Structure formats: structure tokens, C-alpha cells
Amino acid sequence: MTKQDDGRTPPVLTESAGRRGRRRAAGIYGVVVTAAILTAAGSQLSTAALTVAVVVTLLVYWVAEEYAELLGEHVVDGKLPGRRQVRAELLATWPMVSASFGPLLVALLARLAGTSAVAAANAGLAAAVVLLVWHAWSAGRAARLGGWPLVALTSVGALLGIVMILLKNVVLVHLH
Questions:
Q1: Residue 37: how many CA atoms within 13 Å on its side-chain side?
Q2: Percent of the chain with pLDDT over 70
Q3: What is residue 2's three-state secondary structure?
Q4: CA angle 34–56–71, rounded 5-degree value
Q5: Nearest-angstrom CA–CA distance, 13 and 78
Q6: pLDDT in tens, 34-52
Q7: Per-position pLDDT tens, the chain of length 176
Q8: R_g (Cα) of the chain, nearest Å
């Protein structure tokens, strides 16, 4: 990265890094919401209905978050954000929705392979856990972590996934 004459990073470079961070955060959030829905409704809905529920829920969250963000953070001096800014913000956070595609595809393929709807939801949940671990690892690598710090950060992603699985078991065993 180059520095401006006054030593600050040029805004374009900072914005690009910020946008990458938003994309990563949106993807992680999308995986967590996907896992939560698979956990909560995986034993109650068909795989097709579960897939629709996840995608529709994420679309609603995505639009709601961007609406709040654009109005809450970007309305300046009585001006609304322009079409280009709205499009850029929507694109930056689209991974909130698209992060669900992998786990949902795994669930659909498991169901097509003949597993029960519950087993398919569990397969999707397992894929979501793997994706959480991958997000944690890739974030650590992007931060140039190595060794134990990278292992610790990646373990946090794994722990989040394990908590989701434990919550599913608690809900199924103790609340049904």
C-alpha cells in the first residue's frame, strides 16, 4: 500500500480493505444464521421447505441490514445514498445470503441420496461448521497469523460450530 504525503493510507485502499472485511463478516453471519435455522427447524421441515426458509430468512436479514446501514450510516446532510452506493453496499454484503448455498446444497444432495430430512439437515449443519472453520482460518491467514495464534482463531470458529451442534441436541432432547 502506498501512503499519501501526510502519511495516511489513501481512502480508496482503505475502502477496498473495509469492503473485503464487510464481505467476510457478511459471509460469517450468513453461515451462522444458516446453521441456526438448520438447528432449529431441521427436524420439523422437509429439506425443500428448510432450504426455502433459510434463503428467505437470509434475504430478509440482508435487505433489512442494508436498509438500516444505508439509512443509519450513510444519510448525510439530508441526502440519501446514490444508486451506485446502494448497489456497492448490496454487493459487498451479498455473501450473507450466498454463504448458505454450500450447506444447503449438501443438505439437498444428502436428501437426494436417500437420507432422511433430519439427516440431510445434519449434513448441512456439518457443512456449515466446516465453513465456519474455513472462515476463521482464512481470516487468520488474511491477518498474516501463523502458528498458535492461527490455531486459536481457527478453534474459535470450530467452537462456534460445536456450540450450534450442542444447542441442537439440547433443543431436541430437552425441549421436545
A1: 24
A2: 86
A3: coil
A4: 95
A5: 27
A6: 998 998 888 889 999 999 9
A7: 444 445 544 444 455 777 788 899 999 999 999 998 998 888 889 999 999 999 999 999 999 999 888 888 767 677 888 899 889 889 999 999 999 999 999 999 999 999 999 999 999 999 999 999 999 999 999 889 999 999 999 999 899 888 877 876 676 666 65
A8: 19
- The answer to whether the beta carbons of residues 74 and 67 sit under 8 Å apart is no
What is the phi/psi pair of residue 146, to 5°?
A: -150, 175
State the alpha helices, DSSP H only, in 42-116.
47-74, 83-93, 95-98, 101-112
* pLDDT at residue number 12: 45
Query: Could you identify the residue written with the cell 454450500?
Result: 102
Burial label, 43 (beta-carbon count in 10 A; 0-12, 13-18, 19+):
middle
Question: What number of CA atoms fall less than 13 Å from residue 173's CA on the CB side?
Answer: 6
Residue 142's H or E segment, with its range, is helix 117-142
Q: How many CB atoms lie within 10 A of CB 159?
A: 13
Residue 128 C-alpha cell reads as 456449515
In 85-123, which positions are buried (b, 16+ CB within 10 angstroms) versus exposed (e)? eeeebeebbbbbbebbbbbbebbbebbeeebebebbbbb
Q: For the beta carbon of residue 45, count every other beta carbon within 10 angstroms.
A: 19
